[in-house]
Design brief:
This protein has 297 residues and is mostly helical. Helix content is 80%, strand content 0%. Helix 3 runs parallel beside helix 5.
Length: 297
């Protein structure tokens, strides 16, 4: 991602059409919306499986690993995207076999937590070694929608399409293994291979999302929309559609709010995602109470 440009002053009016026209009048904002759309769709689908498989901690660790990857790429003079993707996918490949052995021993959280702490320390070292302008450490950790180029949008689209294609190929057995791994293994499903393939997809998706939200706010698009969707519906097709829809709404509203304000996009993405999750909790609670009242009647 190139260095951010200056943000032009923008005022929010009460005319939606005028605001939308101003929003898309700048190429950098169009690129940000394109990148955000790609990331929201990919994260909505991949995140739905991550929440279902209870792998949020592993996903967060992959996001943290992206920080030293990007900082190391800057130190070596490489594009930040190379650092994000290289570190996240390499960490996913390393975690997959180690995670499986750690699960049998019961120390999986300790293994992943140790890797996460080391990744943060390595990121601090790379930031210290790099003496030039790093686009702001804050941007690496909390994201920036400025400076996304058309070439980077195409790269994000290619990675997103490849991730979704792989997930579509393994989606049905992966869903089965996510619900009950022991029964799936007894039915002949290769749960280890599926788990490793999914972690690679998760690593690539985390690297994608990190370039918009930063390493520490990846969950704004990877967890919150998926968690809200699963509170609203247990049906896979409906849940996946809701997850993508909520992710798109959070992304578009978050980028627009950042454009018309002085605050970072990551703040708005996270706040809107949190609001969507609270609304889903309230809707699920109201539905449960209504069903209980009907059963007692």
């Amino acid at each position: 991602m190139s260095a951010p440009a200056a943000v032009p002053a923008a005022r929010l009016s009460l005319d939606v059409l005028v605001d939308v026209r101003e929003l898309v009048a700048y190429p950098f904002m169009v690129h940000a919306l394109e990148a955000g759309t790609i990331v929201a769709v990919t994260a909505g689908v991949v995140g739905w499986f991550m929440v279902l498989r209870r792998q949020a901690f592993a996903g967060h660790t992959l996001a943290v690993v992206g920080f030293p990857g990007a900082a190391g790429a800057a130190y070596l003079g490489l594009p930040l995207g190379v650092g994000y993707f290289g570190a996240c996918v390499a960490a996913a490949l390393a975690i997959a076999p180690a995670r499986q052995r750690a699960r049998w021993r019961g120390d999986e959280p300790a293994l992943i937590g140790t890797l996460q702490a080391f990744a943060l320390a390595a990121g601090v070292v790379f930031v210290g070694l790099y003496h030039g302008f790093l686009g702001g450490v804050t941007a690496l950790l909390f994201g920036s929608f400025l400076g996304v180029t058309s070439a980077e949008v195409l790269a994000l689209g290619a990675v997103g399409a490849a991730s979704l294609a792989l997930l579509a190929a393994i989606g049905r057995p992966l869903w089965f293994a996510s619900l009950d791994e022991a029964v799936a293994a007894a039915r002949g499903v290769s749960v280890r291979l599926l788990g490793a393939a999914y972690l690679v997809v998760l690593g690539a998706t985390v690297a994608e999302v990190s370039q918009v939200t930063g390493s520490l706010l990846v969950f704004a698009l990877l967890v919150m929309p998926a968690a809200a969707a699963q509170r609203l519906s247990a049906r896979p097709a409906v849940g996946l559609a809701l997850s993508v829809g909520i992710g798109l709404a959070v992304t578009w509203l978050g980028l627009a709010a950042a454009f018309f304000s002085a605050y970072p996009a990551g703040f708005f993405l996270t706040s809107f995602g949190f609001g969507a999750y609270l609304a889903a909790l309230a809707a699920a609670h109201a539905r449960s109470r209504r069903a209980g009242a009907e059963a007692r009647a």
